[in-house]
Design goal:
Number of helices: 22
Strand content: 5-15%
Largest sheet: 6 strands, mixed
Number of strands: 9
Oligomer: single chain
Radius of gyration: 60 Å
Strand order of the largest sheet: 2-4-5-7-6-9
CATH superfamily of one domain: Histidine kinase-like ATPase, C-terminal domain
Shape: rod-shaped
CATH topology of one domain: Heat Shock Protein 90
Distance between the termini: 135 Å
């Protein structure tokens, strides 16, 4: 009695759910109609909004013809906008509608198109949906081998996905295949694998399917208590969703379980409830199965009249379904014929477009060939031009090298001439002096030997100056001059130069003196440069000063510059020679005492000063003497620096700046 009350309560719930579904269906139809109104031509909707509305109508419309119509519109709009995703969905929704109408072949064609585009676009999820839908079609056709194949491909298309609802649905579908092929252990494995994924994604309807299907597996294994528990749980979970197809399937299994347990009244109550729902929902195959179940129940109850009536209804519905199946097959044949005609048209259009493509390709190849030929000609001309430029550059370089070689050769010849000429005089003097000293020492005449010794020292100093100048000049000409920036004392340097030239000054009775107003002290400067400059200028001054003359040197430092003046009371320099004084081509002249120079002293001074960013100039008057002015950058290291009292360095007339 208690069991019957529970069943009645569930039937009341089922009726309430049916009413709720009808209300919900009315609301959904209102929404669909609103979308249809929005697609009218005067709405001026954007492409994205139109695509979204078409997507909704193709999938949600209550009329299958309308679903196919809007799916076709979705395909056309997507193709126009190069939207592969919605193009695939259009074919997918169209295939679903065709499948519901039983036009399986046409549905498969649309799904294959969707898979082809999904493969070329790397849309793995959409490919998975299409493969699973093909598996569903083969499942309805009871071709379980192909069903299993496509479900497996569907799972392989999304191997990286391990927890989505889509994966759970594939597991559920695989379980259904194994259930239909009586592989109950495999079916249980896949149903149980799907439940945690459905729960994780909060999809209770999926949990209900998996649980109810587990109940059907247990029923097939005659584990009736476990079967009844799972079936009831599945039905309770499906009630809010009004999924009467699944609910009726589970209730039929419950009724079969009750029949196996000899609970005939409960089985009859369940069968009657299922039949009412199936009639209301127009589920004809379920009505047929229920009449078959009622026949068995009536036979068990001994009600043969009821069994006969149930069997009569069963045959009527079975024949009706057979006729429907035949109509479906005829429709499939008609669709296949229409599809073949369209395919022929498509093939013809494709062949024409292929010919056009070949023509375009041939034209492009010709254009590319012309471009390549033109490029090769231009490239050849550029190569010839570059070769000509290279040859010209090589010729210029050869000419330049020839010029420098000639200049170097001339310099070498001049250097040898200088060395041969200028060393001959001092060496002859040394030879005579040493011979005389030997004779004097033999006769012990010491006073004359002392005079000869002075002469020898003077000659040796001349040779030293000559060799130092030749060495510095040679280094500078080879571009190997090395700067020696170091701290030196100017006064000490001047005293050393005075000592070196003391013998020459003494022999000509010339007075040498440093008339600097104040002591300069130590400075940071190129010691090689400043010593060479002072030595050459002082040597020239002594060379061209008469007996009894005077040579002075004056040094000062101001504003990070070293100023040097070397003055003499010698023979002076004419104006026409001043302009060429620092040129290497000038031939050296004889001194007042018959001294012979190298001809490179002043040239070397000028070049060393230029390397150190300094300069030199000269003021001279014939018969009165000459003054050389030198300016050289320095870094001062102490505060011993006087102020120049005489600004003659910058204000002399008749000066020549080099």
């Amino acid at each position: 009695m208690q069991s019957n009350k529970i069943i009645l309560f569930k039937l009341v719930l089922l009726s309430c759910a049916f009413l709720f579904t009808q209300t919900q269906s009315f609301t959904q139809k209102s929404i669909i109609n609103n979308f249809v109104d929005q697609l009218k031509p005067n709405q001026n909707l954007s492409d994205s909004i139109q695509l979204n509305i078409l997507k909704t109508l193709a999938y949600r419309h209550h009329n299958l013809d309308s679903c196919e119509y809007y799916a076709e519109l979705l395909i056309q709009h997507s193709e126009k906008n190069n939207d592969n995703l919605n193009f695939i969905r259009g074919h997918y929704y169209k295939a679903i509608s065709l499948k519901k109408r039983g036009l399986f072949d046409a549905a498969l064609i649309n799904l294959q198109i969707a898979i082809t585009v999904a493969n070329s676009s790397n849309l793995h999820k959409e490919k998975c949906f299409a493969l699973k839908e093909i598996g569903d079609i083969y499942f309805k056709s009871k071709d379980y081998k192909n069903t299993l194949n496509y479900y497996t491909q569907s799972r392989s298309a999304i191997t990286l996905d391990t927890s989505s609802i889509l994966v759970a649905n594939i597991y559920l579908s695989l379980g259904n295949v194994f259930l239909q092929t009586a592989a109950f252990d495999s079916a249980l494995i896949y149903f149980k694998k799907s439940i945690p994924l459905f729960k994780k994604n909060n999809y209770l309807q999926g949990v209900a399917y998996a649980t109810g299907n587990i109940g059907m597996v247990f029923s097939s294994l005659n584990h009736l208590p476990q079967s009844n528990e799972s079936l009831k749980t599945g039905i309770e979970l499906l009630m809010p969703f009004s999924d009467y197809y699944a609910i009726i399937c589970y209730q039929i299994t419950l009724a079969n379980n009750a029949l196996k347990q000899d609970n005939y009244q409960y089985a009859k109550l369940l069968a009657d409830s299922c039949l009412t729902t199936a009639i209301n929902e127009n589920l004809v195959p379920q009505q047929r199965d229920i009449y078959e179940l009622q026949k068995q129940i009536y036979i068990a109850l001994g009600n043969y009249k009821g069994a006969y009536q149930a069997q009569t209804q069963y045959y009527i519905l079975r024949d009706s379904l057979i006729n429907i199946d035949n109509v479906r097959k005829l429709a499939d044949l008609r669709t296949e014929h229409e599809v073949s005609i369209k395919q022929a048209e498509v093939d013809k259009a494709f062949a024409q477009s292929k010919m056009r493509l070949y023509a375009i390709i041939c034209l492009l190849i010709g254009v590319i060939a012309l471009i390549i030929m033109r490029w090769m000609v231009v490239r050849k001309n550029k190569q010839l031009s570059r070769a000509l430029e290279l040859e010209t550059a090589q010729r210029n370089e050869i000419e330049t090298q020839r010029y420098y070689l000639e200049e170097s050769n001339q310099t070498k010849d001049r250097l040898f001439a200088i060395i041969g000429h200028d060393l001959r005089g001092p060496m002859s003097t040394l030879k005579l002096s040493t011979t005389a000293i030997r004779e004097l020492t033999k006769h012990k005449i010491d006073p004359n030997a002392e005079i000869l010794m002075h002469g020898m020292v003077t000659t040796i100093n001349q040779i030293e100056v000559l060799l130092n100048n030749l060495l510095n000049w040679s280094i500078e000409k080879q571009g190997m001059y090395s700067f020696r920036i170091e701290k030196i004392g100017i006064e000490e340097l001047i005293n050393n130069v005075f000592s070196m030239n003391e013998a020459m000054a003494h022999s000509k009775n010339i007075k040498m003196q440093n008339i600097s107003p104040q002591k300069v002290g130590e400075v940071m400067i190129d010691s090689n440069c400043v010593s060479t400059v002072i030595r050459n200028l002082l040597s020239n001054a002594l060379k061209f000063t008469r007996n009894g003359g005077e040579v002075t040197i004056k040094c000062s430092a101001q504003n990070s510059m070293l100023y040097i003046e070397v003055a003499d009371t010698g023979i002076g320099i004419s104006n026409d020679k001043i302009n060429q004084l620092f040129d290497q081509a000038v031939t050296s002249e004889w001194g007042t005492y018959g001294e012979k120079g190298t001809g490179i002293g002043l040239s070397l001074v000028k070049e060393l000063l230029s390397l150190n960013r300094g300069n030199i100039r000269v003021e001279s008057e014939l018969g009165q003497g000459s003054t050389f002015f030198v300016e050289l950058p320095i870094r001062i290291t102490n505060n011993i620096m006087g102020n120049l009292t005489n600004s003659s360095i910058n204000n002399r007339s008749n000066s020549q700046m080099v």
